[in-house]
Amino acid sequence: MNYRDEIRPWAIFQYLPSGENVCVARLRTRPDADAYASLLRQGGGSYQVLFDVQPQEVTQG
Question: N or C: the chain end with fewer CB closer than 10 Å?
């Protein structure tokens, strides 16, 4: 995960009929993500807001 994704942990995923999940946006705050997902849902489709943070690898030296 790059730095840009780390500072935007709230992800909006679109669930497609084929069973795929596609990340359509990443935002910094939950309220922003919820508001944007609400706008996307008005056009149809299934969207979900998730907190998507992957732990960083720890290197031992």
Answer: C
